[in-house]
């Protein structure tokens, strides 16, 4: 069950520390660059973006500064406040707007339709069935538009090997079919993990999968904070492996995150 109160409370608390944490984390900076490049690849400047679970608006602000129109949405009040601060700072007028709303309520989104629907870093993993969102995409997306989603899969090898260190809970947390309770700033947020097959089947027939790539399959995930600090050269090399191999089967089925790009071919 989607717990709106837990999501609002946990991620509102996280808003206070999230930007600083991401800006100082080399793995998150690298992953963000790869993800943003995919959006820029499929959508020319001047296009419109609907961002679901936009968080503090870091990605939204990036795209606005590069000539896109972005409507940033999030359920958490703390995240909305952070987005509003960025809107005031950038002073981009109607090119940067915000709406406090859940991604389960696409029929209430303002400013539709858009050229691209974007969701980053597993925000969509807060619901038990991603189909709830995917089936409503035609209500907010223009024909010929794109969907770029970053979703957490069940298999992350770096988490599985934590069993060798005695961290069995970490190793098994993605494998529970009924989801787990993730700790978000002291709040237990229900979380589910979706296989690539589940994600692909959630989309209506008019959507074609354009690209699927893994992130942090070879490179350690962000929760392994000390690894890139202790081994910066090795971390950089592993990021290169991710970029070169993560787009090809079977490597694009596993990792900390999987990036999906779909085209709406109605």
Task: Explain what the structure shows.
With 266 residues, the chain is an alpha/beta fold. The chain has one domain: Rossmann fold (3-Layer(aba) Sandwich). The chain contains ten helices and nine strands. Strands 3-2-1-4-5-9-8 form a seven-stranded mixed sheet, with helices on one face. α4 links the parallel β2 and β3. α1 crosses α4. The two termini are 32 Å apart.
Concise summary:
The chain has ten helices and nine strands.
- Which parts are unreliable, with pLDDT below 50 for 5 consecutive residues or more? none
Query: Which CATH architecture is right?
Result: 3-Layer(aba) Sandwich
H/E element sequence: HHEHEHEEHEHHEEHEHHE
CATH-derived topology: Rossmann fold
Name the average pLDDT. Answer: 95
SS strand fraction: 15-25%
Helix content: 25-40%
Q: What is the C-level CATH assignment?
A: Alpha Beta
Instruction: Output the CATH homologous superfamily.
Output: Vaccinia Virus protein VP39
Q: Give a short account of the largest sheet.
A: 7 strands, mixed
What structural category do the secondary elements indicate?
Answer: alpha/beta
Strand arrangement in the largest pleated sheet: 3-2-1-4-5-9-8
- Outline, from the CA principal axes? globular
């Amino acid at each position: 069950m989607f717990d709106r109160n837990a999501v609002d409370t946990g991620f509102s608390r996280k808003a206070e520390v999230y930007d600083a944490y991401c800006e100082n984390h080399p793995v998150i900076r690298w992953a963000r660059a790869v993800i943003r490049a995919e959006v820029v690849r499929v959508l020319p400047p001047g296009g419109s973006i609907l961002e679901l679970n936009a968080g503090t608006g870091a990605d939204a602000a990036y795209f606005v500064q590069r000539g896109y129109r972005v409507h940033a949405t999030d359920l958490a009040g703390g995240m909305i406040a952070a987005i509003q601060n960025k809107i005031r700072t950038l002073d981009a007028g109607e090119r940067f707007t915000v709406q406090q709303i859940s991604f389960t309520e696409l029929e209430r989104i303002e400013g539709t339709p858009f050229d691209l629907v974007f969701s980053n870093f597993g925000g969509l993993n807060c619901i038990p069935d991603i189909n709830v969102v995917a089936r409503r995409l035609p209500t907010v997306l223009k024909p010929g538009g794109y969907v770029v989603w970053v979703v957490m899969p069940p298999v992350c090898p770096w988490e599985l090997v934590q069993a060798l260190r005695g961290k069995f809970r970490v190793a098994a947390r993605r494998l529970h079919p009924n989801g787990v309770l993730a700790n978000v700033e002291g709040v237990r947020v229900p979380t589910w993990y979706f296989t690539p097959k589940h994600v692909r089947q959630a989309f209506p027939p008019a959507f074609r999968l354009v690209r699927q790539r893994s992130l942090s399959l070879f490179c350690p995930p962000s929760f392994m904070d000390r690894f890139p600090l202790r081994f910066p050269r090795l971390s950089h090399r592993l990021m290169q492996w991710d970029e070169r191999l993560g787009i090809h089967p079977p490597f694009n089925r596993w990792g900390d995150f999987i990036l999906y790009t779909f085209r709406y071919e109605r």
